[in-house]
Design goal:
The chain is mainly alpha-helical. The protein has 5 helices and 4 strands. Strand 3 and strand 4 (90-91) form a beta hairpin. Helix 1 crosses helix 3. The chain is globular, with a radius of gyration of 12 Å. The chain starts with a helix and ends in a 9-residue tail after the last helix. The relative contact order is 0.20.
Length: 106
């Protein structure tokens, strides 16, 4: 595993249950590249028990990574099991659930 992926995974592991962040917020926090690179790193982690990739969504709160999970509904099911409301593959009241990695520095 490369250094970039390790940094992405370290941030994703710190996202609290019931909260979500975006690919872009992680990329900005790490100053290591683009949101697309974060998505690529997370795609490599699907199925890893200790990396909650389901808590990372696009900037609109859409479950854009859902098709990379074993079933297209698994991402939504995992979020809903943590109390996050999802309708039509989009987080309801996205701002209320949003967590920024900068909170790690507080």
């Amino acid at each position: 595993m490369n250094h970039y992926m390790e940094k992405v995974y370290a941030v994703v592991r710190r996202i609290p249950p019931g909260r979500v962040t975006t690919y872009g917020a992680i990329a900005d926090y790490l100053s290591l590249g683009s949101a697309r690179m974060v998505g690529w790193a997370l795609h490599q982690s699907i199925g890893a028990a200790n990396i909650p990739a389901h808590r990372v969504v696009n900037r609109k709160g859409e479950l854009s990574g859902r098709l990379h999970f074993p079933t297209p509904t698994l991402m939504q099911q995992l979020l809903e099991s943590e109390g996050v409301a999802v309708v039509h593959n989009r987080i309801v009241h996205f701002d209320a659930y949003f967590w920024h990695p900068e909170e790690l520095d507080r």
